[in-house]
Description:
11 helices; single chain; Tetracycline Repressor, domain 2
Amino acid sequence: MTDVTNARIGEVMPGKPLSREETKAITRRRLIEAALKLADAGGGRSFTASEVAREAGVAQPTFYVHFRDRDDLLKALGESQIDELRQELARARAAIDLEAMAGGHPDEALREAFRLSVTAMLEHPMLFRVYVRERTHSDSPLARHCRGIADALREDLVTDLRTLDEHLSRDRSDAERTMLADAIGAFTEALGLGHLDGRYDDLEEIIDVLARFTRSALA
């Protein structure tokens, strides 16, 4: 993927003529970003190819130069945008210190784990809202992609819970770990959305509540 593909419009050298491929990459990116904006604003409502083209500021026939149909666009949206959120959450997970959580400073480690995860979500508000909403609102390629990411995140958390149980010599079934992972994931998303919607202003208080809930659930 070229730098131009990843760039926003205008992030090219002024006065430098663009190649045909660079121009196409920029237009494709504009269409994908327009679809993300409409998906976020619509809260699960379907949007048309003409609406995406209009939001992107291009003629409707241009849409079909880049995508076969709406489903093709939604698939690209999942792969190029929602995966960005998945990567951020994976980086947050990699930074979590499970040994500290199981050792002498479990509360601090648990709070830091949630701080990393919640911050990763809130730094990408549109991606986060679309990821949560699309999973249950349709059976589009984007919705299926989001559900696949949710499944992978659940498995990651189950793996972390298994490692934590081994550190603490706890006997817990994978079924119980999966239920705990679902509960922790749903609660984290709910409070994250509440923060974006303005219901919960204090991020540190959100992290405190998540840590206390999880500590109690895992006890």
